[in-house]
Amino acid sequence: MKNTMKNSNEFYAGLTPLYHLVYPDWGKSLKRQADMLDSVIHEMWGAASEVLDVSCGIGTQTLGLTGLGYVVTASDLSPEEVNRAKQEAAQRELSVDFSVADMRRAFDHHQRQFDVVISCDNSVPHLLSNEDILAAMQQFYSCTRPGGGCIITVRDYEKEDLSKQQVKPYGIREEEGIRWLLWQVWDPRPPIYDVTFYFLEDRGEPVCRTHAFRSTYYAVTISSLMKLMRGAGFVDVRRLDDRFFQPMIIGTKRAQQIS
């Protein structure tokens, strides 16, 4: 697993300066995703106000939620992404407590509890075994106040064809006179698959530069993730569709622990 996390860190270290291009309009995505998360948080956990984002990346969910008035603590395994998230928060005059931490050590690192713990945008499948995912879920549980909850969003891998190589187009972006073409290539090795994320940089010259970033994911099913969440201690675990751009898995920590 150490090699796996090194692989993930190298992936995001290279991707960090370009990560906003994954979204057609990153600024609008910050607001839209925060509104979606806010709706579920208030529906499920009432007046929750403190959030821990254990895979904050460059701040896509953290910045939007902070802008809505949540007190957000955010961490990520990638120092490069955390540094960019800090810069983005400063530019928006948002106060966020950022740090570098492995989600499998979330409580060991933060040493406190929050109303809601989140890990969005298919971050959990960077952990390549059920054992590692369960270890992370147990840390999420320890970070959750009684009566609070956890939100995870992931790809629905049961809808993906992992029997053969796949090409996933992300579209064209225009920024500062540069045209970017984005796509992923998936090379399956069930139950995992290797991803190469390509960013073609077109400056209008005869030769274009292509940036390629590589990582590995575990094509874990949502039903397996729900089982692991229950195994970590969460109750009322359920799947929510059409509430976010990916399926949500949510769970609640009992308000009063049964002795």
The biggest sheet, with number of strands, parallel, antiparallel or mixed sense and barrel status, is:
7 strands, mixed
The CATH superfamily of the largest domain appears as Vaccinia Virus protein VP39
The percent of residues in helical segments reads 25-40%
The tally of structural domains comes to 2
List the helices and strands and how they pair.
Layout: H1 2-15, H2 26-45, E1 50-53, H3 60-67, E2 71-76, H4 79-91, E3 97-100, H5 106-110, E4 114-119, H6 130-142, E5 144-153, E6 166-175, E7 178-189, E8 192-202, E9 209-218, H7 222-231, E10 235-240, E11 248-252
Helix pairs in contact: 2-3, 6-7
Please tell me about this protein's structure.
This protein has 2 domains: 2-157 and 220-252, Vaccinia Virus protein VP39 (Rossmann fold), CATH 3.40.50; 159-218, Nuclear Transport Factor 2, Chain: A (Roll). The protein has 7 helices and 11 strands. The chain has helices at residues 2-15, 26-45, 60-67, 79-91, 106-110, 130-142, 222-231; strands at 50-53, 71-76, 97-100, 114-119, 144-153, 166-175, 178-189, 192-202, 209-218, 235-240, 248-252. The radius of gyration is 18 Å and the shape is globular.
